[in-house]
Automatic annotation (TrEMBL):
Ranges for domain TLDc: 206-382
Protein name (database record): TLDc domain-containing protein
UniProt-listed PROSITE patterns: TLDC (PS51886)
Top-rank lineage group of the source organism: Eukaryota
Species: Medioppia subpectinata
């Protein structure tokens, strides 16, 4: 479909495209008087990154694909005939409808509204067709009007300085900077383009209670799991604070996601590659670990970070760097080595520990080494 063609434009595929589309939608809301008037100046792109409404407009395609299946089919049918202008019409009509039912618009409100939309596909299309003053020829003019201002030319001194800095950095690359050794930076509110994966729509969790948390975690999962349906198989608020119940309800699932929420509202956990029932094969061998290098630790609140197995960045690993999972009737543990645990939870499921460990070379997952737990959840895949 020539999706990247400059002449035949179908869907936005880049971050720049999404920023451009957000500005177009802001301009259209002002032009058509659909929402509160907005001022879009030369620095509009920077403003977009700090505004919840503009962030939502930048992800307007997500709104559409969170609609029920029959709505999506009708929208795509019209899109293939009318072109991208119809997607803008749908986005504007969804914004109007959401504004009527909710106080303000942001990305999460739009997702929730679209997922539970109460109007029929025909009604939605009828509302969209009432949005006039849009033409296929007019959109390229909008695109040209908001093109980025070309940067000022660099001086020869600036070029030489940049070249010297790049050469110096290339000579000092270490294994710790390998892309396989992932330690994600904190994701700021400005980084609103999360990723290409669509997180599950019909999924309810006591801990992953915002779309941004689900989206972030789903970007880290192995590819094969993205197409499978997740389900919460254990929740301490519903099933009680019993490690034995934890083992019973999680026994038949592999892999699983262990989620911890502290009383301070910090959220972190581990992707556990092997079933917790594997501990039964090792009961006679005290202190034995199991699991694979697919296991990883992560943080979700207040910062986002993923800590993969150190063996992905180095060819030779010691025994202390292969301590993935361990469990007995007193505790569960993910990650160890050097006398410390990456993540440790006691039998009451109310207290835990986290520290840097040799298996994942992770930062401490919680602000304190010892923490009190509010909720424990386990997510499995059917």
């Amino acid at each position: 479909m020539h999706i990247n063609s400059r002449d035949v434009h179908f869907m936005s595929t880049t971050k720049a495209d999404k920023s451009r589309d957000a500005i177009i939608l802001v301009k259209l809301t002002k032009k058509l008087g659909l929402l509160r008037p907005r001022k879009v100046g030369a620095d509009a792109r920077e403003k977009l990154k700090n505004n919840a409404l503009d962030t939502a407009f930048g992800e307007y395609l997500q709104w559409i694909f969170y609609l029920p299946f029959h709505h999506v089919i009708r929208v795509i049918d019209c899109f293939l005939v009318e072109g991208e202008k119809f997607l803008f019409r749908i986005a504007l009509s969804l914004a109007i409808q959401c504004q009527k039912h909710k106080n303000g618009i942001n990305l999460e409100k739009m997702r929730e509204f679209c997922e539970n939309i109460q109007i029929s596909p025909q009604k939605l299309i009828s509302v969209a067709l009432k949005v006039t003053s849009l033409s296929r020829k007019g959109l390229p003019l909008h695109w040209c009007c908001i093109a980025l201002t070309p940067p000022s030319p660099l001086s020869p001194a600036d070029i030489a300085k940049a070249k010297s800095k790049a050469e110096l950095k290339s000579e000092n690359i270490s294994f710790n900077e390998s892309p396989l050794h992932v330690k994600c930076d904190v994701i700021s509110a400005k980084d609103y383009i999360i990723g290409a994966r669509i997180a599950p729509q019909h999924f309810h969790s006591q801990i992953l209670n915002t779309w941004s948390l689900v989206d972030t975690l789903w970007e880290w999962l192995p590819e094969r799991l993205v197409v499978r349906e997740p389900e919460v198989v254990f929740c301490s608020e519903e099933n009680g604070n019993s490690l034995q119940t934890f083992f019973t309800l999680c026994a038949d699932f592999e892999p699983t996601i262990l989620l911890i929420k502290t009383i301070g509202n910090e959220v972190f956990g581990a992707f556990c590659s092997t079933s917790w029932s594997k501990r039964l094969d090792l009961m006679s061998k005290s202190g034995q670990y199991f699991g694979t290098g697919e296991t990883f630790l992560f943080q979700l609140l207040p910062t986002h970070a993923k800590y993969e197995w150190v063996g992905k960045a180095q060819k030779i690993t010691s025994h202390s760097q292969q301590l993935f999972m361990s469990a007995n009737h007193r505790s569960i543990c993910v990650g160890s080595g050097g006398g410390r645990f990456g993540l440790f939870v006691d039998e009451s499921l109310t207290r835990g520990q986290s520290d840097r460990c040799e298996t994942f070379d992770n930062e401490r997952l919680c602000s304190e080494t010892n923490f009190d737990i509010s909720v424990v959840e386990v997510i499995a895949f059917s």
